[in-house]
């Protein structure tokens, strides 16, 4: 019935319109009556022409490109964010298909095997901190981004984070989400030890005395880690050690600074104030679990891992405090940004660069920050009120100062030839000093001799 | 009379032979080749002749790992002894005996990684074991079990024994149940008491199972990896105290990316394993012949 009425109405409108005079007046002739001005109001529906997507900053993306993207340990927690970002990417770069895979504990082995098998993903989430970017860049399987992207794209990131994991002075990664190193404090244990949170040591050199007090007063051990997969970094940042000569032909990590640094750990181990299981492991979970179970007074981590405490030990969550991580003798903090790198010989270099850049652009980083306590590697993201708002939860306590901290992160680590072998030599030497009574100086000098033999 | 060629048996054998060729023969051939190369998995192998083997001879950690693997073989006699004992205990018609058999078998189906993690938690500085020892006032402060070089290997061996107990027990139990009852009756008539029955009847009757378990468990002991990896947090123990030959192989191949050198280690392990198996079987066969 309603359709019929509508049809009649439309029909009547057409008939009336046909009978009516022309809407536009006929051109006036000199003899005719001057025309009366008529105001015509028309409703015009305009379909906007698609303009350039502001996020599509990479030119020449291959049409119908199919690219694979691997992330490290982000699924299922961040499925919505990843899938949403991929969907947005496909709107910005229509026609590009992205196949996303998340790899977890076996990521590094999977990635190495994929390189060997010729199935390396076009785009991969690699770790700067664990040395993955420099490892694969050294092997020549990653794309040199310094030469591949325009300066306007490089300028999107903090300069210090763009210049990370350099190999022969070239950058092979888009800096992704960063962390701000903080000390989580179990205030129950800390106050039991008669200590004040605000007096937490500002430098690494203050840790031995702190651990001694905590052990004496609470009977608990310090939850401190030696980063066994990247000991040179720890020496450089904590000990202010010059690791290799400027010409790269001689290792120098048996200097007085290096001995002082190692001796600090030797003294703590001998005094029995550190948990040795947490100290010597390549699994950061061991140390995190020790803190999460409430058996350690403090633990250095990123605020994003506070959610682990909240989930696994809500009782402890209420007693958490956060203070800045102590600085080492170098006075600098190491860069903490995760990275996204591109396969060197991908058939779709521009589409791959576009995806890597898209995930690390200011908007994507901001959206990721809103999901979890990570910090963008792009200064523009911090302009959002999200970062200037007063922190509510303890996870957010670093938000207002994060931009300043991250902008000052500097990569002090030089290119180290045969890095893995040198790290292994150093690991063995450190263990000899810590657990086998070999003097620190001797252990390091022996290690330098062995490491120098690797330089060709 | 000439034999007719028939394709049928080869067709039946084909899939299995293909599997063996792809998953056994090719990897062995590849390992032999890689052992003479400098190979990092990512980059193509480069032929270096015998250099890997020369390095191996002077590699102190390799010898330490080899020694640890040989020490690890101690789990075999301990396992055989405990499993026979356990099999004898559960080979009785007692109420609830099936439940006990199932309970002893649970570690086998739990998986070494899960069990390893449970053990790590139990042996943690703040774990169950220290908690008990402290509450009994047997220790004054927690022992860092997993960070004490002297304890690493024994703890890993204990874990291997615990994991294998149920599996090997079932093999011995099956063996015990195959021994004719008449032999025990005869032994009783000859004046044997309970333990003598087992000494003179059960043990000789279990000789095939002992051979099998000895070979299988010693090969497993030589190839132990999971327990070490989990208990030592992937590091092999402080001062390499838990590094066995397979763990060392893994470390070289996947941590340090010396796949060529790791292949040389694997080849040495293959030779040792092969020699060990042959000697093991020969000795036990000789024993069996002497016993008959």
Give a written overview of the molecule.
The complex is a heterodimer of chains A (456) and B (292). Chain A is α/β, with parallel strands linked by helices. Chain A has two domains: 66-179 and 335-407, Periplasmic binding protein-like II (D-Maltodextrin-Binding Protein, domain 2); 194-333 and 413-452, D-Maltodextrin-Binding Protein, domain 2 (3-Layer(aba) Sandwich). Chain A is built from 21 helices and eight strands. Chain A has helices at 2-19, 79-92, 107-117, 132-138, 145-148, 151-154, 159-162, 187-192, 207-218, 231-239, 256-270, 276-279, 284-292, 306-312, 314-317, 349-359, 362-371, 385-388, 399-407, 419-435, 440-452; strands spanning 66-72, 97-103, 123-127, 174-175, 182-186, 298-301, 320-324, 338-342. A five-stranded mixed beta sheet of chain A has the order 2-1-3-8-4. In chain A, helix 11 (256-270) crosses helix 20. Chain A is globular, with a radius of gyration of 30 Å. The model of chain A is unreliable at 1-33 (pLDDT under 50). By secondary structure, chain B is an all-alpha fold. Chain B has helices at residues 8-34, 51-57, 60-72, 75-90, 97-110, 112-123, 128-135, 149-177, 181-189, 194-205, 207-222, 226-231, 245-255, 259-291; strands at residues 37-38, 46-47. In chain B, strand 1 and strand 2 form a beta hairpin. Chain A binds chain B through residues 109, 112-113, 115-116, 136, 139-141, 219, 221, 228, 275-277, 279-283, 286, 290, 293, 295, 420-421, 424, 428, 431-432, 435-436, and chain B through 40-43, 61, 124-126, 141, 144, 146-147, 149, 232-235, 238-240, 254-257.
């Amino acid at each position: 019935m309603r359709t019929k009425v509508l049809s009649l109405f439309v029909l009547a409108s057409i008939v009336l319109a046909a009978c009516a005079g022309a809407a536009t007046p006929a051109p006036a002739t000199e003899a005719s009556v001057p025309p009366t001005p008529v105001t015509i109001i028309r409703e015009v529906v305009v379909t906007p022409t698609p303009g350039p997507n502001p996020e599509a900053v990479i030119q020449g993306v291959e049409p119908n490109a199919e690219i694979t993207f691997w992330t490290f340990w982000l699924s299922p927690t961040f499925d919505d964010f990843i899938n949403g970002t991929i969907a947005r990417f496909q709107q910005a770069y229509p026609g590009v298909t992205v196949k996303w895979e998340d790899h977890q504990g076996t990521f590094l082995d999977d990635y190495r095997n994929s390189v060997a098998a010729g199935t390396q993903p076009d785009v991969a989430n690699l770790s700067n901190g664990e040395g993955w970017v420099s490892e694969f860049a050294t092997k020549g399987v990653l794309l040199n981004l310094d030469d591949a992207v325009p300066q306007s794209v490089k300028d999107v990131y903090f300069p210090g984070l763009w210049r990370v994991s350099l190999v022969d002075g070239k950058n092979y990664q888009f800096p992704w989400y960063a962390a701000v190193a903080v000390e989580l404090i179990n205030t129950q244990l800390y106050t039991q030890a008669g200590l004040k949170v605000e007096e937490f040591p500002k430098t690494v050199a203050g840790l031995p005395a702190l651990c001694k007090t905590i052990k004496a007063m609470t009977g608990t051990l310090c939850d401190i880690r030696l980063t066994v997969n990247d000991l040179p970094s720890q020496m450089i940042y904590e000990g202010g050690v010059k690791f290799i000569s400027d010409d790269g032909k001689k290792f120098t990590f048996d200097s007085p600074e290096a001995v002082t640094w190692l001796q600090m750990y030797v003294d703590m181990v001998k005094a029995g104030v550190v948990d040795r299981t947490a100290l010597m492991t390549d699994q950061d979970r061991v140390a995190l679990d020790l803190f999460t179970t409430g058996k350690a007074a403090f633990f250095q981590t990123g605020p994003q891992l506070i959610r682990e405490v909240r989930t696994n030990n809500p009782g402890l969550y209420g007693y958490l405090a956060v203070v800045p991580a102590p600085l080492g003798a170098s006075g600098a903090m190491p860069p903490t940004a995760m990275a996204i790198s591109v396969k060197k010989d991908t058939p779709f270099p521009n589409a791959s660069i576009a995806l890597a850049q898209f995930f690390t652009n200011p908007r994507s980083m901001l959206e990721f920050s809103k999901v979890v306590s990570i910090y963008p590697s792009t200064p523009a993201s911090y302009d959002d009120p999200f970062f200037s708002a007063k922190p509510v939860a303890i996870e957010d306590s670093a938000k207002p100062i994060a931009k300043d901290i991250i902008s000052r992160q500097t990569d002090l680590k030089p290119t180290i030839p045969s890095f893995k072998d040198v790290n292994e030599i150093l690991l063995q030497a450190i263990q000899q000093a810590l657990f086998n009574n070999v003097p620190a100086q001797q252990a390091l000098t022996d290690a330098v001799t062995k490491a120098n033999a690797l330089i060709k | 009379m000439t034999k007719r060629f028939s394709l049928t048996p080869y067709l039946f054998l084909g899939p299995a032979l293909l599997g063996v060729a792809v998953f056994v023969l090719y990897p062995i051939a590849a390992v032999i080749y890689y052992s003479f190369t400098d190979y990092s998995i990512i980059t193509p192998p480069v032929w270096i002749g015998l250099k890997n083997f020369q390095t191996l001879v002077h590699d102190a950690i390799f010898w330490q790992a080899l020694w640890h693997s040989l020490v690890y073989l101690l789990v075999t006699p301990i396992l055989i002894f405990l499993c026979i004992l356990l099999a004898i205990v559960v080979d009785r018609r007692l109420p609830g005996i099936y439940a006990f058999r199932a309970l002893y078998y649970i570690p086998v189906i739990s998986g070494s990684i899960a069990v390893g993690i449970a053990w790590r938690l139990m042996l943690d500085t703040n774990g169950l074991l220290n908690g008990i020892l402290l509450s009994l006032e047997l220790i004054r402060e927690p022992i860092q079990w997993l960070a004490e070089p002297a304890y690493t290997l024994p703890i890993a061996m204990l874990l291997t024994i615990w994991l294998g107990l149920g599996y090997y027990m079932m093999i011995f139990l099956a063996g015990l149940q195959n021994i004719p009852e008449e032999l025990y009756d005869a032994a009783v008539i000859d004046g044997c008491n309970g333990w003598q029955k087992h000494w003179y009847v059960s043990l000789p009757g279990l000789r095939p199972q002992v051979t099998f378990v000895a070979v299988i468990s010693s090969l497993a002991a030589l190839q132990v990896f999971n327990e070490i990896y989990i208990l030592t947090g992937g590091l092999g123990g402080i001062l390499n105290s838990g590094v066995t030959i397979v763990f060392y192989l893994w470390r070289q191949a996947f941590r340090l990316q010396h796949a060529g050198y790791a292949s040389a280690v694997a080849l040495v392990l293959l030779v040792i394993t092969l020699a060990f198996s042959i000697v093991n079987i020969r000795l036990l066969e000789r024993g069996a012949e002497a016993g008959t």
